Amino acid sequence: MIRKSLLGLCAFAGFLSALPAAAQTWPTKPVRFILPFGPGSGIDITARLLQDRLSSKWGQPIVIEHRPGGDALIAIGAFANAADDHVLLYASLANFLAHPYQHEKLPYNLARDIAPIARVSETVLSVSVPTALGINNLKELVARAHAEPGKLSGTSSAGIAAFTWSAFMKNEKIDIPQVPYRDAVMAPNDLSEGRLQVIFGALAAIGPQLKSGKVKVIAVSGNSRSPLAPEAPTAAEAGFPVLNAASSVGLFGPSSMSPELRARIGADVVAAASDPAFIERVTITGQAVAPAGAAAMEKSLQTQTENVAEIAAQLNMKRLSRE
After folding, report:
1. 184 with 277, same domain?
2. Secondary structure element (H or E) that encloses residue 155, with its range
3. How confident is residue 118, by pLDDT bands cut at 50, 70 and 90?
4. The last residue of a domain, from among 243, 266, 298
5. For residue 2, what pLDDT is reported?
């Protein structure tokens, strides 16, 4: 065991010695994580857990900066304009991939301004309703929407979730008017009080309302059920595979960041997110921990970009922005 530890330390020392000086000395000042959601979101929860581990590793404080609203454009624009290796974006791929179909002009260029550093988790999306509504599954939701067209109201998280929900409603020929929110984490309170009848968004965001018994999860995305709502089937199990949307969450840096520094930060993030205590804390919030480096995040970006393009085609939407 001691020999293995020494070999590991030697290998890590060799890795550091091969890095350029700038990559070895980073960070030289506090690091900022810009988030597109407010406190209490799934992204906020994982960012804070990473903050605790990485600040001690890096020897500098990490400041979490919430920039909700504006379809995530406020947060992404602030990150892109900073163009600083000490200003990082902690976000979901869902926050950018629908933008070219929704906005003619964007305050950023994905290829020019943003470089993946590491993947931390996969967002588990859920279809949730007030318990008092008496709807127990997706088929009952569709039946109620047909029986009472326009009477139910709902909301969905910006980006991939909103696209996917629109495709679901089109396929099922139902009309559930969507209520916009500046910060998606405010919607679960309205759901629990019956002011909304359905949310399609991050499962982690409705955790407190779920525990109170006021909200019921009737389906989740992904290939397996969530420990947070084990009674809820996956969308595919429920017979509605269109709702099986995927979105990777991770850390991004400016594209001007050196590959060596990206690799070093990515290795630290993956190590922190692979810690059993981290995995346990994140999993119980309804998120799927999936730590991996920049290459895996870039592959997720490509796959999920293709998925969004397919959904846009179903909705007869064309790209408005060419970035």
Report:
1. no
2. strand 154-156
3. very high
4. 243
5. 41
